[in-house]
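Chain A, query sequence.
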Amino acid sequence: MRKLVFMLLAAPAIGLAAGFEGSVSLVVDGKPLRPEEAAEAVVYFRPSDMPDMEFPAVEYTMSTRNKQFEPHILPILVGNSVRFPNEDTILHNAFSSSRGNAFDVGLYTEGEGKTVEFSKPGYVRVYCNVHHAMIGHILVLDTPYFTRPGNDGRFRLEDLPEQAGDLVVWHDRSKPWHIKATPGESAAIEVTLDLNLRRIPQHKNKFGKPYGGKNAGY
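Chain A, predicted structure.
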């Protein structure tokens, strides 16, 4: 179930930057979650006539801490890198089989970890070859126009090109919500996402085998 309230109001006064603002709320089995939980969602806008762009080099970080990937959801710009430091005193092995951005950093102990460059836009599921329940999500974007909701669930995207495009709200446990919209024509957007996807998707280890047992390979 995905609900939307989308109100078209008068265009902003001349001189104000074109943009979108609104709020995101999450529900599970029809029950609303706390507003601050919507802060994990990613809101982005991709103009229909998106030019080729080179983005500044940034090194993002996805740590392993208490047998979890942190942050759980990480939006980055295409062509940039993510470092995978280990803050635990046990071994981890971050890897992904995602098409176009597959990687395997191998076993690594506590320390700075290795860096991986992501050259293709798309969604990257990150697993640990040692711990089945560990999963992280990297959203590789080819648009610089993205943000995260605040702890109250509200978001604001500003300084957007005044042309039609795709406005998307993304969360790992819901199908992406999106509409065609033009910045400056929308004054209030309320999106409710139903988190009906599994928290830990069914998956195998990096060798394509079930976790555990003599064939685990880790």
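Residues 24 and 172 are 14 Å apart (CA to CA). The chain has a mean pLDDT of 89.
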